[in-house]
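Hey L., structure's done. Input below.
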Amino acid sequence: MDSEDEKTISVRDSKKTALRNKLLTTFYQEGTKSIPDLSDSLQLSIPTITRFLEELAHAGYIIEEGEGFSSGGRRPVLYGLNPNAKFVISVDIGRFIIRIALVNLRNQFIAPVRIINEGLSSQSDILQLIKQESEDLIKQSGISNDKILGAGISLPGLIDIKTGISYSYFTAVGKPLHELFKEIFPFPVFVEHDTKAMALAELSFGLAKGKQNVLCLVLGAGVGLSMIMAGKLYKGNSGFAGEFGHIPVADNGQLCYCGKVGCLETVASGVTLIQNARNGIASGASSKITDLTNNNPEKISLDIIIKAAALGDQYAIALLSRTGESLGKGIATLLHLFNPEMIILGGELSKAGNHITDPIKQTLNQHAIARILRDTELVTTELGENATLMGTVALVINNFFTKGADFPKL
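Output:
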C-alpha cells in the first residue's frame, strides 16, 4: 500500500471517528433521538446515520427507546445511549469532606453517594482512603473494572493546566495530579478544579446550557468562582482564574489560610461562618444550633446552621445574612467586571436558599450599578450538591465522546 492510499484510509477513519463521537455526544447531551432528528441536526443522510447507529448498537452503546411522536404516518423509532454500557467513578475532594459517586451514561447514580467526613485538611493518607472507598463502592455495585470508562477527580486550590501540578495540595509529591491519581485507579483518570467542574456541569446540562456569559460560584468551605465566557469555560493563562475567595476586602482583617490577610474567605466562607457560630454560642448566644448539636460546638456545621435557620432561629439567620452581605459586596465587583447574563450559586451554602440569596440581592441593590444589575439573573443551581460530581462525569465522558480519547470497546 502506497503512502497516498494510507493517507486516504487515515482521513476516512478520522472522519468516521469524528462522526461516531458526534453521535454519542448528541445522545449524551440531548437524550433520545430518532434517525430523522439526527439527520436534520447533523446534516447527514438517513442511510449514513442508520449505518453508524447499527455499528454503535452492535458495540452495545446504543439501544432502542420506543417510538416518538408523529404528526402523520409511522411513528419514528427513538434511540439513546445504553445507560449501563459504561460507568464513571466521580470523586469530589474537599478540604474537610470527600464525596464519591458511581454514575452511568445517563448521569444516573447507581448507588447512594458515598460521603466521607475527611478531606485535604484533615486526612494525611487521603489517596489510600479514596482508593479503598472507591474500590468498595464499585465492588458493592457489582460492576467490574473493565466497565469503568474512567475516573473524574475534582479538588480545590491552584492547579496548573500546563503541568497538571497542584500548588496547594500534594505539593511534596511534585507530580502532575493525573499521574498521582493513576497510581490508585486502574482506568483513565481526568482531573479538574472543583469550581470549574461545577461550571462544566452547568454548561453541559444545567442552567448555563446554551448561554454565553455565566459566572458559577461554589459556596462551601471556601468561596470559588468559575467563568463561562463566549460559551466556553475560561481558565486563564495557567488555570488559576477564579480565585474569587482570595480578593482582599479587609485591610486589617484576619489571616487567611492562603497566607494573605483580609481575603473574602475570611468573612464569607463556610469555615468562617462555622467559626463565628461557635464563637457566638460560646459567648452566650441563644440558638437552636445548641439543641441540634447536643450542646457540642465541635458538631456545628454548615448543614446544622442551615437547618437552624430553616426552623426560624434568628441567630442562624443573622449569621447567614452577614455572610450574604459580604458575598454580595464581592459579587457586585464581579458584575462590574464581567457583566454576566447569569450568576449560578452552588455549594453547600447555597442550600440555605433565601436566607443567603436575599441578603446577597439586597447588597447588590446597594453596591451594583442598576443598569448592569438588571442584565444579570441570580439563580441557585438545580443540580444541587451533586453539581461538582456531575461536572467530573461530563469531563470523563467528553474526553471519550468529544475529544476522541482511546475509545473503549465493550
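The chain has a mean pLDDT of 89. The chain has three domains: 3-81, 87-200+388-401, 207-382.

-- N.
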